[in-house]
Specification:
single chain, 143 residues, seven-stranded mixed beta sheet, 5 helices, 7 strands, 29% helix
């Protein structure tokens, strides 16, 4: 089961992000929407969107280690894609240092950072959190 998370899940969100070495310093559930994947009552995965007009930054997709390579990441990603489509998002962007093969398999394409709209470039993740060596990727939402 996947559901949108509220502030009561913040400790679990932060733990999962920390366990995966993902950024936590700018986590704000008032400006980012998180979804959690639950298995047998336990949150085993998360994904988030930071929405900026017609665009969104896909961030913080993480699955607990023992549940990886079992298509749970695809479930979370597909939820984020469905939500994006329903919200009228036209384009998703992300930065990654480790997960580009996963996103390439799911029809994301690598792009130069200079192709990213200003709304996304102005996020903390782009401005200061992720290193310039992180791979920038995009996905066109089909409405």
């Amino acid at each position: 089961m996947i559901k949108q998370l509220d502030l009561s899940y913040l400790p679990e969100i932060l733990k999962l992000l920390n366990d995966h070495g993902l950024p936590v310093k700018d986590i704000d559930l008032n400006h980012q929407k998180f979804w959690g994947l639950f298995h047998e009552g336990q949150m085993i995965g998360i994904g988030a969107l930071e929405i900026k007009g017609d665009f969104a930054l896909l961030r913080s997709l993480a699955i607990q280690q023992k549940y990886q390579n079992k298509r749970y990441g695809n479930q979370v990603l597909n939820t984020l894609l469905d939500v994006s489509c329903r919200m009228g998002i036209k384009q998703l962007y992300l930065l990654t240092e480790t997960a580009s093969p996963f996103f390439l398999r799911n029809n994301f394409i690598k792009i130069d950072r200079n192709m990213v709209p200003k709304e996304i470039l102005d996020t903390e993740e782009f401005k200061s959190i992720c290193p310039s060596t992180a791979i920038c990727m995009t996905y066109n939402i089909k409405s």
